[in-house]
Amino acid sequence: DTGVSQDPRHKITKRGQNVTFRCDPISEHNRLYWYRQTLGQGPEFLTYFQNEAQLEKSRLLSDRFSAERPKGSFSTLEIQRTEQGDSAMYLCASSTHWLSSYNEQFFGPGTRLTVL
Amino acid sequence: SQQGEEDPQALSIQEGENATMNCSYKTSINNLQWYRQNSGRGLVHLILIRSNEREKHSGRLRVTLDTSKKSSSLLITASRAADTASYFCATGTASKLTFGTGTRLQVTL
Does B33 lie at the interface with A, CB-CB under 8 angstroms? Predict the structure, then answer.
């Protein structure tokens, strides 16, 4: 499978716990994005990496959220001290600079987080 | 924040009928894209239209773009049950996509 993969697909946690999600982009893609989607809404941008550099972060990304892409390949998104409002689908996407003019993004299946 | 609104929010049609959904956006764009999302899953890119294009076709999909009205429409012809999904328009820069609120399409047999 050469698509974007995410792990885990589902995560249930108690309020106050930390969680970490992983995203593996399409191998030749140098751009990686994280989005959050709540029920009945479109995805909302969280952050963007080009290679290992985090170039943009949304105001949605509070100080409890941190994302890394240490070697410019896979990425992790960590949420510390989870709150019930963090319950959402977390989507990862990747793209290549060859498409930079048009920014077609390829999405993974998402990680559904439920905070009890 | 969401880029704009999709209209209608929900649409139910019978197999074989055409489905039209509309998208409005707020800012100037380089391109506009449409994505499909099956229930609880990731998004799949359908079609991209550039700001200097007015209409584009891909299989059973037809997209129009009116930059003067900041609006786009997606037409799915001869719908199938497998077209049941949520459809989102998105405008983008190199660093991110900004999505609309989506249209939920239900195609019944």
Answer: yes
